[in-house]
Write a structure and sequence with these properties.
By secondary structure, this protein is mainly α. The chain has one domain. It is 87% helix and 0% strand. The longest helix has 30 residues. The chain is rod-shaped and about 50 Å long.
């Protein structure tokens, strides 16, 4: 599998997953938590971690598939 394709897929699905993570975590922070800090900042942090996870996972799987094939 092409590593550039893996990276592109990681970016696309990472952005989709990050958007979902932001919406879900923002709703939960606003509704259920009493904390100090900004719900937006905490939700953005969750979205960023989710994006990185999907990007790294896609690139790693692309590299593994390339070695196997």
């Amino acid at each position: 599998m092409n590593l550039e394709l893996s990276a592109a897929l990681g970016v696309v699905f990472g952005l989709l997953a990050a958007a979902c993570a932001f919406v879900i975590s923002y709703g939960e922070y606003k509704r259920n938590w009493s904390f100090r800090g900004s719900a937006v900042n905490m939700a953005l942090r969750s979205a960023f971690v989710t994006f990185l996870f999907f990007l790294v996972a896609a690139i790693a799987l692309g590299a593994i598939f390339r070695m196997v094939m």
